[in-house]
Write a structure and sequence with these properties.
The structure holds two protein chains of two kinds.
Chain A: E1 2-5, H1 18-108, H2 119-132, E2 136-142, E3 148-152, H3 167-174, E4 179-181, E5 194-202, E6 205-213, H4 215-225, E7 232-237, E8 242-244, E9 266-273, E10 276-284, E11 290-297, H5 298-301, H6 303-390, H7 400-429, E12 436-438, H8 440-453, E13 460-466, E14 474-476, H9 478-495, E15 499-509, E16 512-519, H10 526-529, H11 549-559, E17 563-569, E18 573-581
Parallel strand pairs in A: 13-15
Antiparallel strand pairs in A: 1-17, 2-3, 2-6, 4-5, 5-6, 7-8, 7-11, 9-10, 10-11, 12-14, 15-16, 16-18, 17-18
Helix pairs in contact in A: 1-2, 1-6, 6-7, 8-9, 9-11
Chain B: E1 5-9, H1 13-25, E2 29-33, H2 36-45, E3 50-54, H3 62-72, E4 77-82, H4 87-95, E5 100-103, H5 108-123
Parallel strand pairs in B: 1-2, 1-3, 3-4, 4-5
Helix pairs in contact in B: 2-3
Classes of the chains: A alpha+beta, B alpha/beta.
Amino acid sequence: MRVWDTSHLLDTVPAGKQAAEHVHDYTDSEANRKRIRHHFRQLQTRLVLGLLLGFLLPNALLTAYFHFQFTHTLKNSALLNLEAVAENQKNTIDLYLQERVVNLFNLFHSREFSLQPNQESMDSYLQSLKRFNDGFIDVGFFNARGIQIGYAGPHPQLRGRDYSDQPWFKELRAGSRNYLISDLYTGLRNIPHFTIAVRQVFDGTPYSMRATLDPDKLYVFLRAISHGKEVETTLVNARGQYQVVDPARSPFPASSSYVPPGSPAAGVEEIELDERATLVAYTWLKETPWALLVMQPASVAQSGMYRTRLVLTISLAAISLLVSLVIFLTIRKVVADARRMAEKGQQLQEMLAHASKLASIGELAAGVAHEINNPLAIIMATSGVIRDMLNPEFDLDHSPEAICKELSTIDTAATRAKGITKRLQEMGKARMPVSVQCDLNALTAEVLERLQRVEFKGKHLEVVTRFAADLPQILAEPEPLRQVVGNILVNAADAIADKGTITVSTAMQDGMVSLTIADTGRGIPAGDLQRIFNPFFTTKGGGRGTGLGLSIAASIVKYLGGTIKVNSIPGAGSSFTVLLPVK
Amino acid sequence: MEGLRVLFVDDEDDFRETIVKRLNARKIQAMGAESGVRALEIVKDNDFDVIVLDVKMPGMDGIETLRHIKQMKPEIEVIMLTGHASVEFGLKGMQLGAFDYVMKPAPLNELLDTINQAWSKKRGLH
């Protein structure tokens, strides 16, 4: 069994409809092109969004993560670096101070030492100290009562002075250690200085030797050992008072705005100093309760890091931008290529549709020519016969009856030609729409009744009708619809040689109204099934069929928005089902 | 053209019968056949000099009929009868061994000329 659908008969239309069809096609192809453009624009947008989400976003997140990690790490490393510098300098300063203390102790063990030193001895002590370090200003020797019994230096008026009330003397006497290094103070000479004092017991009596140190010299030393851009190195005591500081910056007495905590012994932090972010590392000295402060503006300490970070960020951004640009351009090119291909495909399809339409027109024209030529040939041949009859040479029967018989053959042929042109006109007219509500049952019954009265006469046909009772009305033009029903019914009757049954039924099928006309005729060979809807295809010999019936039916049904389906078993019969939409 | 035997094959009864009548009037032994199948039956039992064959017939068409005739009796000359729009069938027929083709509707004289040429060829009078 073969099932054939008429929906492929899109282009089986009469030639007269071509102009309108063409305009219709043009709009269609324009719409198609719009659809393709829209589709590819969407595709491009999706791809670009994919690029942004899949590449740029993770890239940006990763960059941000590394940026913060990098900043954190480098800030830490700047702090650690400063702390290491401070620790290193602290050791140097401790060593320096220890050396000064040792210098002083060594005086007790020198050859010139005496418990009653004369001026010459004292001068030689001072010289010996200055040989070790030019920071020494003067040197003095004190008995147990705190009287300076020997002095060498720029303040000879201090010789013989009582120091028993001086804080450093009291501290040295009371302290557990046998030496001390004082804070910066002005003392009896009224000039800021440090005292380094040592204590030594001779025969049960404590004697003290003390030297003063020039704070400026200590500052020069501090400057000498510190390095780094905009690094400021100072020494402060536990209360934050400057012990060694740039004399130009802070004249004595002055305090640092940063007071280092007592513990831990060393540390580093970032603080606001003079409204400027500053890194400060502190570390407590061993020899004296002073803290070494090493300060550096954060911007300077981290400038290298900021530069590196900037270069890194710019490079990453540039690479991302470049890669994105390349991907974007590639996407655009690929999408444009694909769009061109699709448009070309669409164009080809349109050309193909057009070509197949032209082919249909060609077939139609060929069919028309052939169908008209047949009666014309008969007319020519028959008029020739009449001429032959009138020619005595051929000795033919030329009685008026014989000539009349030939003339009626001509009439028949002419009528046939006229019939063909009339049907062609009907085909053209088939789409003139005057739609009304139609009752398919009533319409079919009416057509059937008319056919049974005339065309079906002389055959032993049994017609069975099965009309669905509650069939909805359909919106259609009654006359073309009658033509559809009539054409199929006539074919059914023709398919039956002498005796058979035609079953006509209506029903609702998939939301459409269906009319099925089944016959028990000879059936349609599989090879013909594809061609039965083609104009001028006929199996009815002897000029009985025009080959337009089903072609007209198909175009009417298609116009009404329906389809025709065919089932056929050769030798057993055919069934045509017309499906029409309910409107 | 006495002695010339022609078979005229066309499904149009009026046309075929009229032409056969006119050929007979011209002392040609003409016979008609209404289909390809019928033509083959007649050719099997009778000898012809020329066969005129309509290309467009229901059932077995002219081209198919030509093939069978040429297999069965290749010495018979065949003239194809075509419509204006189906000249290609005429040409196809000539490729398959037809002598010539004539386009419908043709004046009888043209058909007679072609039949005569075909007959001459068959008799080896070229």
